[in-house]
């Protein structure tokens, strides 16, 4: 199997930050969220949350849909949930 180096770099970069990983777990638990909910939950600024969401989106770990004036973020697919499950199992072992 050939691994795409660019995609691998983007994913490992996205996972190299505890807040981004926490955002992924939050989205997994809540199915979706807007920036305001993430700001309130993580007690951080809109630019900070938006920057982290962009990195996650660039790595294809999350995607967003426009809902009126806001964007709603979700995990990209079931593979991301599986990755989070594996990560949680590894951390807890």
TrEMBL record:
It comes from Apilactobacillus kunkeei. Keywords: DNA-binding, Transcription, Transcription regulation. GO terms for molecular function: DNA binding; DNA-binding transcription factor activity. This is Transcriptional regulator. The keyword Transcription applies. The keyword Nucleotide-binding does not apply. Residues 1-93 form the HTH arsR-type domain. Pfam families: HTH_5. SUPFAM superfamilies: Winged helix' DNA-binding domain.
